[in-house]
Design goal:
The chain has about 120 residues and is mainly α.
Length: about 120
C-alpha cells in the first residue's frame, strides 16, 4: 500500500489545479492511475447522466433519453390508448358492472302516464 505522502504526491502530479492554486486540492477522482477529474467535474457528469463515462466504468443502466419521461407522466388514458393501438385492440374497455354509463339517466326517461285527476 502507498503511504499518505506517496498518495498526495500522486494526486498532485496527476490532477489538475485550479487557477491561482499552487497544488491540486482534494477531492480529486482517479480510477486506478487514470485521472477522472475533480469534484466539479464529477458534479457536472452526474447532472448530465454521464457518471459512468466520467469514472471510466461500463454503464449498467441505459442512459436517460430526453422526452422518454414524458410518456411515463402522461395520464393513464393516453397511455392505455397508445398500448391498445399498438396491440391492435380498441382503446375503450368494456363497461364495468355498476359503473355509470353514457346512457340517458332514469329521470329523463318518461314515466308511465298517470292521470293527474283522482279516479272515483
Amino acid at each position: 500500500m502507498y503511504s499518505m505522502e506517496e498518495q498526495r504526491d500522486f494526486m498532485r502530479a496527476g490532477a489538475k489545479k485550479k487557477e491561482g492554486q499552487r497544488f491540486a486540492l482534494p477531492p480529486q477522482l482517479f480510477n486506478g492511475e487514470k485521472y477522472c477529474g475533480d469534484y466539479d467535474d464529477f458534479d457536472v457528469a452526474n447532472e448530465d447522466d454521464e457518471l459512468e463515462e466520467f469514472l471510466g466504468l461500463p454503464r449498467k443502466t441505459p442512459k436517460a433519453v430526453p422526452g422518454k419521461l414524458e410518456d411515463e407522466i402522461k395520464p393513464e388514458s393516453e397511455n392505455a390508448e397508445k398500448i391498445a393501438a399498438a396491440e391492435g385492440a380498441p382503446a375503450e374497455a368494456a363497461p364495468v358492472e355498476g359503473a355509470p354509463t353514457d346512457a340517458t339517466p332514469a329521470e329523463a326517461v318518461p314515466a308511465e302516464e298517470t292521470s293527474a285527476e283522482p279516479t272515483s
